[in-house]
């Protein structure tokens, strides 16, 4: 598979021939990398394929997927481009690895959450579900993008009550937006800043296993 993205792939240790597996594509936060989110979902690796996707733009010791004009204000051309590139990557990876196309999940934090929610809205039921932690949906996505229905997409949104980057108000607004779009929407708050607690991780793992019918 020729990809413009560097990525990290974990296949189940005892992978069965001719079997298709659910997949979690992880999208990291600004300044991180493709391995950063693996620890969060590592307990799923016997049942899921896990693919971490690295942003293409260097940022300090890490990477980002797009740059900003200001906080909460992506550079539109860069954002548009990476949304298209990530969609293509998901399809290419599905063709390369033994992935069940009916069980494709995105899991993202911060910038990765923003992209996960945007991809849900642009890919619709090509995705089974998303986990979006401490992010938001850019206004131009809601008003200017050609959106697909997410009524059959499962959505888990979490936010830190004391998030100093994206205030908790943004989490409530994001959840309210998706609640109008899909009946399969879970929203949880955690007593954290801009991060992921153990309780949050526990809830995410259980949610993914239940949604993919591993419980």
Automatic annotation (TrEMBL):
What PANTHER family is this protein classified in?
LYSOPHOSPHOLIPASE-LIKE PROTEIN 1 (PTHR10655:SF17), LYSOPHOSPHOLIPASE-RELATED (PTHR10655)
The name under which this protein is listed is Esterase
Task: Give UniProt keywords alphabetically.
Answer: Hydrolase
- According to the UniProt entry, where is the signal peptide? none
Taxonomically, which superkingdom? Answer: Bacteria
Family annotation (InterPro entries): AB_hydrolase_fold (IPR029058), LYPA1-2/EST-like (IPR050565), PLipase/COase/thioEstase (IPR003140)
Q: Which SUPFAM superfamilies match?
A: alpha/beta-Hydrolases (SSF53474)
Q: Please list the residue ranges annotated as the Phospholipase/carboxylesterase/thioesterase domain.
A: 18-209
Similarity annotation = Belongs to the AB hydrolase superfamily. AB hydrolase 2 family.
